[in-house]
Amino acid sequence: MAHILLLEPDTLLGNTYRAALEFSGHTVTLCQDAQAAVHNMDIEAPDIIITELSLAVHNGVEFLYELRSYAEWQNIPVVVLSHTPSVHADVMRVLWQELRIAAYHYKPLTKLADLIRSVEQTLVPAL
User: How many domains does one find in the chain?
Assistant: First the structure.
């Protein structure tokens, strides 16, 4: 299947998401901050990234801008899985168009099966 970079600051949630994704046949690198994510991407570029927007030091949007600034990472699909609701239309427009977000999930309303389905649907064109 695919190699997933999971950027999740909450250890318990990160381990839960990683277990579910690995059970679905994917390999997962779990990072708790943007700096660790970039470092791991230098070692092995993922097939897809799942990221929280609420991160310490560098927030998820800053991470996405940095990600898209590298030519070799511009086409990596990104799924946002966040506690931040998608209520601000102007912010969402930037995320979807400028940063090329494949899917956006609001954590309190997202089931693990929905996340896995989203990842697999996003990967279909990429694989």
Answer: 1
pLDDT tens per residue across span 69-110: 998 999 999 999 998 776 565 666 767 777 888 888 889 999
49/19 Cα distance (integer angstroms): 16
Q: What residues make up the domain containing 17?
A: 3-126
DSSP state of 81: E
CA distance 45 to 51: 15
Domain of 48: which CATH number?
A: 3.40.50.2300
pTM of the model: 0.90
